[in-house]
Design brief:
Elements (H helix, E strand, L loop, with lengths): L10 E7 L10 H5 L2 E6 L5 E2 L4 E3 L5 E3 L4 E2 L4 E5 L9 E3 L12 E6 L5 E7 L5 E3 L1
Parallel strand pairs: 7-8
Antiparallel strand pairs: 1-2, 1-11, 2-7, 3-6, 4-5, 4-9, 9-10
Length: 128
């Protein structure tokens, strides 16, 4: 008996901007130039509480109480800022995404992979 494939997550990694513009000075503006865009492909809102965004190293951002509206994006920035319906902030003082290649994982609260996106050492962003 074949095991049914897991349905694709309605919330997916759409783009990763892993090499922030300019020199990597670790200023908050530079840290916030590094981000991951998640997109809700569904027409209905999705609760992301407990969903995690993680890199290969294990640096992990966990969503608190947060709902993404249908057919909308949310950007998760590495640095500090004020969270809103479309912008979330990790609050880190170090970069997360490696310019030389990395993988972004979107994980369900159970730990299973909802989506992932990998890139190599060229360019500054990746559409997934």
């Amino acid at each position: 008996m074949a095991v049914p494939a897991e349905a694709a997550s309605p919330v997916q990694i759409y783009r990763v901007y892993y090499d922030s513009p300019g020199k990597d000075t670790r200023s908050n503006a530079s840290l916030n130039g590094e981000w991951v865009q998640l997109f809700n492909t569904s027409t209905s809102s999705k609760n992301l509480k407990g969903v995690k965004l993680r890199d290969k190293t294990g640096y992990t951002y966990t969503f608190g109480t947060f709902t993404i509206k249908g057919r909308k994006s949310v950007y998760v920035h590495t640095g500090k800022g004020s969270n809103s319906a479309t912008q979330r902030y990790w609050g880190r003082s170090q970069y997360v995404w490696n310019n030389t290649g990395d993988t972004a994982y979107l994980l369900y609260p159970s730990g299973s992979v909802a989506d992932k996106c990998s890139w190599g050492s060229s360019g500054s962003s990746k559409y997934c």
